[in-house]
Amino acid sequence: MLTVLVQSMALASVGIFSPGSITIVILLLMSDRGWRNGLAYMLGYLSMYALIGVGVLLLGVRNSAENTATEQSLTTSIILIVVGLLLLALTARNWRKPPATNDGQTSRFSKIIDSITPPKAFAFAATVAIINFKNLAIFLSAVSVLLLSNLLLPTKLTMLIPLVLIFCTSVITPVVIYLAFPDRASDYLMRIKQTIERYRRPLGLIVPSILGILIVMRGISGLS
Predict the structure, then answer these.
(1) How far apart are CA 198 and CA 185, in angstroms?
(2) C-alpha dihedral over 198, 201, 203, 204, to 10 degrees?
(3) How far is CA 93 from the centre of its chain?
(4) Residue 60 and residue 68: Cα distance in Å, rounded?
(5) pTM above 0.70?
(6) Once rounded to an integer, what is the mean pLDDT over residues 63-69?
(7) CA 15 to CA 31: how far, in whole Å?
(8) Distance (Å, rounded) from C-alpha 9 to C-alpha 125?
(9) pLDDT, tens digit, for every residue of 135-165?
């Protein structure tokens, strides 16, 4: 059980390096509705990944009769290989793209952010959780460790809670900083945003490439 938890948490922790998610929640926190938008976005982000995780684990129960608890089905192996290759393709695309200046894009996005209400921020976060392929692949790879273990379903669902929290740390942390240090939050968040922008390109190359290789290797191991 401890091994499964450590492996799943290790993969989920990769989600911390999510520049896009951190930037969005910081812009929301610095918008006109401040903490309301940031909190709504965080809740939407957490809720969607929790629903995805629960759905994957519940659907996995249906396959338990066909495969042993620690056996990886052919379909799962193929899906893992495809996801890993897509992540490597994403890395290659990021590498070919020249470094971009985000000033204009951030400025336009900031104007849109200012008009967002908390319900829209919640829905926006839920949408981002689905369409952000890189983050979704990271999360599903972490959940797959639970899915392929021989633990009981209630135990898997319980372990999903800290897994989701670890994975969503990139969104939770700015909100916690804002609520804990309201007077100095703007300075802290701006420093985080500037650091993220400085290292956005290296993160966009290193994280998906390492994860892609690991997922492909995991998929290939299930074919043997």
Answers:
(1) 20
(2) 150
(3) 20
(4) 12
(5) yes
(6) 50
(7) 24
(8) 22
(9) 888 898 889 888 888 888 899 999 999 999 9
